[in-house]
């Protein structure tokens, strides 16, 4: 029964070892799946160029990442949270409750959100926020009354659009992208088309209620929430030639052979049009650093400064090459990290 | 304590050896399998150095009684034994008695042959080994040969001691089991 | 043969004709034969469907994944420019390591200028040196930098290197990128495809077996061509080790106790029902449990094989216990009687006779449990193992606490990436996973044969 003894010994060893956990020596990052590719590119380069271990990057979404980030201070918690939206008041409060009071906010650049469909599908070439509002909002004003969205085809929304069923694949609510989509496309369309004004005026709704009514997305199957990544959206588009999906610019640029992109308010999405602010649907990307971990976790500050260094996040760096729109105010960010400026 | 039975020789020797000591003294033994009453009030004395046979119709409780003698019935959850069974005037159902120790002294061959799925040699050597009778190989071999000879199977298996015991014929297997039962310091039943 | 089997009429004489000929099938026999025939056909169909599904699955995975074991390499001479690599000229290792990988890109481009011109002359129209340099993987910079740091004396010389090409060129040689798709694709230019053709013809570029796919760590989205399974393999190996070392002894001990020693009462019944229930609990629940207990309460590190191993152990235990109990039950009670009858203690009877007989069943159960654990992703999701990890964990026991991923997690990771080249790598990772499963099952069969031969 030697083998049994050996296994028992090994088991005892593992249990013994499990009780004495050891110090973490690599940076731990988690959060937005939009930021994940950028973070992994930087982590890889960081590991190659410095003597620090390569940081470990987890995805899982902005909210999940920030929640983990706010769990507390100490080795068992992460050092950096990636987010495709700014941290919310509520999250800052939750952080503070758990002792995470000093947070350094780092904006790494901008990400464009594009609308793309099959290359040989219907001619979805130009959109306006107005059209998206009328296609996707749950309620519309018809004859002065708020009713369920009656539009079934894109041509119902606007005769210039293709005569096909509406089939939109938009990011699920756990994605930071969804918020941007709702605010910069649906809400903007609602305001643009005057529906917002009618709601607050004729219908006598409060500002907040009207906003909520504008941004509520229809749930009758015309719009499909994608909780997975853009790869899932892509495969849904692949399977549905009338489908139109919401993608990140970087994802689109990696798949230009399969997808054709539509303009928004007449502007073609590109790193240039986004950095000038011409293309309306874009959002800043962030990561948040736990200041209490600087000096405790080796390489944390170095990683944060490396992330936003000109060689990495600048217009000709690998992040821009992948699809990130470089931040024109990168120098300020670099200085803020050097000074370890925390948010209030 | 050398009742070399379990194989039931069909001749009544009890009267011829009256002067032998009583080895097993059983009085008012009742055995229950759950609700069913398998043995009712059996009292019998088994003599030392004597072959005793139980004869009866099928299902009358012969095996059940034998199993009482080395407390093999303990392994059957629903089985309950009452009455007194004494080995050398010690109650074997006393709380102080460890059935394992008892079984080392009271061997048993079962109704159906049940050799271990090991070699013939290992089958017979198993008892002596676990009871620590010998650690020398030559002595072990001697014990095995003696046991096999006593069970009248030596000639048939001496050339294939390391063949599997399960490969023997039914009768040979049963004789192997007898050899196995008398392998440890030979005991009874 | 007993007398009763003989037809009683046979005594009457050989010449008597039987009432019913055995040469003619009676209705009852015919009906039974028909039923058997139909069952055979049905059975054949069932097996056929299963085999067909398996073949389709295998063909689709193999055709999608096998190319990932091959990679395209480009041989190129690079001038290790001292002006870039060692501006001070002192060959100070400190100073050399200060030069970041990004600085190597212009140097590679410069070294390839001549080659680009040559290729353009040969027919690759509109090929700029930048395009040619872009055909080289981003991993080349790191390779050059490591080489320079290890051999500072080579600075100033021209050295021949072999680099991975970027994924689009590789996919072109594998037939996945075509000129039509390249025309639409912003990441590749038709001129680069022409150049690739020329380079293949001249022998500077070739596609061959790539061990790095199995041994190298994961790579970022910019360089799918460099991504490998090394860390995932190690992580999976560590986790399997932990599962084996914990689940097997605990599971077997628990089953032996429950099956052979414990009294059958209400408590053991409750335990039995619970074990069967645990086996059916969705695996993600074990992940939630692992997160709560091992990470939040015991403060074990995130993303570490130790936590994955413990979670998978919990998940595998019921499987092993159920299999072990079933095989213990299958050992005929007469063997226990035999051992007890010669005076063996219960423990001796179990360990000397029952356990060896049950071993093949236990092994099969254990390996099935391990195989199930090997392919499990959901619980690992919650304990941070679905991550981008590039550093290999150390040898155990220390390495058990360092970040790693696992094979199924790596498959999941690859499928989430934007670059289509990762699709092929996901299938390749599935093939590696399948190979491991096949190996494990083979080991199970071999071990079973071994144990069974000892009757
Ligand atoms: N494990 C058991 N559980 C319940 N009842 C049992 C068990 N073993 C035996 N019995 C019952 O006890 C009675 C006696 O059985 P036993 O085996 O002692 O008969 P036997 O005299 O040895 O018969 P045979 O000559 O056929 O071997 C039978 O009625 C049998 O059904
Ligand atoms: Mg009987």
UniProtKB/TrEMBL annotation, chain A:
Task: Look up the domain of life of the source.
Answer: Bacteria
> Which keywords are on file for this protein?
Signal
Domain called PBP: residue spans? 17-310
A Pfam family name for this chain? PBP_like_2
Cite the Gene3D superfamilies for this sequence.
Periplasmic binding protein-like II
Q: Which InterPro entries match?
A: PBP_domain, Phosphate_ABC_transporter
**Signal peptide as annotated in the record:** 1-23
Cross-referenced PANTHER family, in alphabetical order?
A: PERIPLASMIC PHOSPHATE BINDING COMPONENT OF PHOSPHATE ABC TRANSPORTER, PHOSPHATE-BINDING PROTEIN PSTS
What's the protein called, per UniProt?
Phosphate ABC transporter substrate-binding protein, PhoT family
Origin organism is Albimonas donghaensis
From TrEMBL, chain B:
State the GO CC annotations. membrane
Taxonomically, the superkingdom here is Bacteria
User: What residues does the ABC transporter domain cover?
Assistant: 40-182
| Keyword hit for Transport | yes
Transport recorded as keyword = yes
Q: Name one GO biological process term.
A: phosphate ion transmembrane transport
Pfam families with a match to the protein in the record: ABC_tran
Keywords attached to this entry: ATP-binding, Nucleotide-binding, Phosphate transport, Transport
Membrane-spanning residues: none
Care to name a GO molecular-function term for this sequence? Answer: ATP hydrolysis activity
Its recorded name reads Phosphate transport system ATP-binding protein
Q: Which organism is it from?
A: Albimonas donghaensis
UniProtKB/TrEMBL annotation, chain C:
Q: Which residues form a coiled coil?
A: none
Q: Which SUPFAM superfamilies match?
A: MetI-like
Q: Which InterPro entries match?
A: DUF3333, MetI-like, MetI-like_sf, Phosphate_PstA
* GO cellular component labels: plasma membrane
Annotated ABC transmembrane type-1 domain residues: 233-444
The GO biological-process annotations, alphabetized, read as: phosphate ion transmembrane transport
One GO MF term attached to the UniProt entry: phosphate transmembrane transporter activity
Localization per Swiss-Prot or TrEMBL = Cell inner membrane; Cell membrane
Q: Where is this region: Disordered?
A: 1-24
Q: Which residues cross the membrane?
A: 41-66, 237-258, 278-300, 306-328, 349-371, 426-447
Q: Which UniProt keywords apply?
A: Cell membrane, Membrane, Transmembrane, Transmembrane helix, Transport
Q: Which NCBIfam families match?
A: 3a0107s02c
Q: What is this protein called?
A: Phosphate transport system permease protein PstA
Species annotation: Albimonas donghaensis
- Provide the organism lineage as a comma list: Bacteria, Pseudomonadati, Pseudomonadota, Alphaproteobacteria, Rhodobacterales
């Amino acid at each position: 029964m030697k083998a049994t003894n050996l296994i028992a010994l090994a088991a005892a060893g593992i249990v013994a070892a499990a009780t004495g956990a050891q110090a973490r020596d690599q940076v731990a990052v988690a959060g937005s799946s939009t930021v994940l590719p950028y973070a992994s590119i930087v982590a890889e380069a960081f590991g190659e160029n410095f003597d620090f271990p390569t940081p470990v990057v987890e995805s899982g979404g902005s909210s999940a990442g920030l929640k983990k980030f706010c769990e507390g201070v100490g080795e068992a918690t992460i050092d950096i949270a990636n987010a495709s939206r700014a941290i919310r008041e509520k999250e800052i409060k939750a952080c503070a409750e758990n002792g995470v009071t000093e947070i350094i906010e780092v904006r790494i650049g901008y990400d464009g959100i594009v609308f793309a469909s099959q290359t040989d599908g219907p001619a979805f070439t130009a959109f306006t926020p107005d059209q998206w509002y009328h296609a996707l909002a749950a309620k519309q004003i018809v004859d002065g009354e708020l009713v369920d969205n009656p539009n079934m085809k894109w041509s119902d929304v606007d005769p210039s659009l293709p005569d096909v069923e509406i089939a939109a694949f938009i990011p699920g609510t756990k994605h930071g992208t969804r918020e941007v989509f709702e605010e910069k496309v649906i809400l903007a369309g609602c305001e643009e088309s005057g529906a917002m004004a009618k709601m607050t005026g004729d219908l006598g709704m409060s500002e907040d209620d009207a906003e909520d009514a504008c941004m509520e997305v229809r749930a009758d199957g015309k719009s499909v929430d994608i909780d997975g990544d853009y790869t899932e959206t892509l495969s849904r588009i692949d399977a549905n030639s009338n489908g139109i999906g919401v993608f990140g610019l970087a994802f689109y640029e990696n798949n230009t052979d399969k997808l054709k992109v539509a303009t928004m308010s007449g502007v073609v999405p590109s790193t240039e049009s986004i950095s000038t602010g011409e293309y309306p649907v874009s959002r800043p990307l962030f990561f948040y650093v736990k200041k209490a971990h600087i000096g405790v976790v080796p390489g944390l500050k170095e990683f944060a400064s490396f992330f936003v260094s000109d060689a990495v996040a600048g217009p000709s760096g690998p992040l821009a090459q992948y699809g990130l729109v470089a931040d024109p105010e990168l120098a300020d960010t670099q200085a803020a990290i050097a000074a370890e400026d925390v948010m209030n | 304590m050398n009742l070399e039975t379990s194989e039931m020789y069909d001749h009544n020797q009890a009267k011829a050896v009256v002067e032998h000591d009583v080895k097993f003294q059983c009085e008012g033994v009742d055995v229950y399998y759950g609700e069913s009453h398998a043995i009712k009030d059996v009292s019998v004395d088994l003599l030392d150095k004597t072959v005793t046979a139980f004869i009866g119709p099928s299902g009358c409780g012969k095996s059940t009684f034998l199993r009482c003698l080395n407390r093999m019935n303990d392994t059957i959850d629903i089985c309950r034994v009452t009455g007194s069974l004494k080995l050398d005037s010690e109650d074997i159902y006393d709380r102080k008695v460890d059935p394992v120790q008892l079984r080392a002294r009271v061997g048993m061959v079962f109704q159906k042959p049940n050799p271990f799925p090991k070699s013939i040699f290992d089958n017979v050597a198993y008892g002596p080994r676990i009871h620590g009778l010998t650690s020398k190989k030559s002595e072990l071999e001697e014990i095995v040969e003696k046991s096999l000879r006593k069970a009248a199977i030596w000639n048939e298996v001496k050339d294939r001691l390391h063949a599997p015991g399960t490969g023997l014929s039914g009768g040979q297997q049963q004789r192997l089991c007898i050899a196995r039962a008398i392998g440890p310091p030979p005991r009874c039943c | 043969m007993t007398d009763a089997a003989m037809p009683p009429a046979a005594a009457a004489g050989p010449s008597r004709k039987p009432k019913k000929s055995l040469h003619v099938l009676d209705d009852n026999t015919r009906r039974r034969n028909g039923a058997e025939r139909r069952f055979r056909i049905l059975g054949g169909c069932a097996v056929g469907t299963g085999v067909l599904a398996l073949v389709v699955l295998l063909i689709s995975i193999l055709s999608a994944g096998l190319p990932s074991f091959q990679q395209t390499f480009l041989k190129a001479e690079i001038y290790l420019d001292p002006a870039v690599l060692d501006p001070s000229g002192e060959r100070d290792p400190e100073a050399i390591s200060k030069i970041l990988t990004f600085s190597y890109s212009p140097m590679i481009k410069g070294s390839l200028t001549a080659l680009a011109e040559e290729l353009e002359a040969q027919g690759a129209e509109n090929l700029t040196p930048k395009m040619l340099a872009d055909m080289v993987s981003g991993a080349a910079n790191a390779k050059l930098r490591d080489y320079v740091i290890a051999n500072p004396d080579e600075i100033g010389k021209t050295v021949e290197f072999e680099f991975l090409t970027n994924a689009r060129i590789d996919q072109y040689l594998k037939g996945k990128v075509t000129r039509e798709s390249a025309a639409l694709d912003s990441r590749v230019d038709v001129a680069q495809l022409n150049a690739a053709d020329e380079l293949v013809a001249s022998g500077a570029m070739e596609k061959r077996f790539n061990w790095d796919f199995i041994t190298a760590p994961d790579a970022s989205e910019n360089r799918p061509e460099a991504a490998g399974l090394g860390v995932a393999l190690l992580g999976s190996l560590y986790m399997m080790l932990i599962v084996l070392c914990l689940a097997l002894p605990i599971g077997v001990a628990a089953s032996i106790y429950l099956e052979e020693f414990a009294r059958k009462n209400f408590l053991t019944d409750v335990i039995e029902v619970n074990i069967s229930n645990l086996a059916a609990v969705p695996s993600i629940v074990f992940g939630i449990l692992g997160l709560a207990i091992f990470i939040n309460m015991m403060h074990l590190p995130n993303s570490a094989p130790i936590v994955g191993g413990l979670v998978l152990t919990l998940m595998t235990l019921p499987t092993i216990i159920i299999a072990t109990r079933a095989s213990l039950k299958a050992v005929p009670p007469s063997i226990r009687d035999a051992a007890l009858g010669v005076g063996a203690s219960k423990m001796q009877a179990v360990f000397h006779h029952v356990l060896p007989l049950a071993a093949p069943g236990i092994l099969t159960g254990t390996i099935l449990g391990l195989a199930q654990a090997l392919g499990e992703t959901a619980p690992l999701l919650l304990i941070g193992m679905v991550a981008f990890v590039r550093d290999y964990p150390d040898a155990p026991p220390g390495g058990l606490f360092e970040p790693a991923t696992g094979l199924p997690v790596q498959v999941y990771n690859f499928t989430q990436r934007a670059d289509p080249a990762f699709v092929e790598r996901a299938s390749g990772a599935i093939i590696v996973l399948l190979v491991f499963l096949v190996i494990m099952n083979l080991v199970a069969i071999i071990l079973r044969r071994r144990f069974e031969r000892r009757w």
